[in-house]
Amino acid sequence: MVESRRVNRVPAVEGWYTIDAAPHLLGAKCGSCGTFVFPPRDNGCPNPTCDGDELVRTPLSTRGRVWSYTENRYTPPPPYKAAEPFEPYALVAVELAAEGLIVLGQAPKGVLATDLKVGMEVQLETDVLWAETTDDGSVIEHIVYVWAPAAPSANGSGSPS
Question: What is the pTM of this model?
Answer without folding.
Answer: 0.85
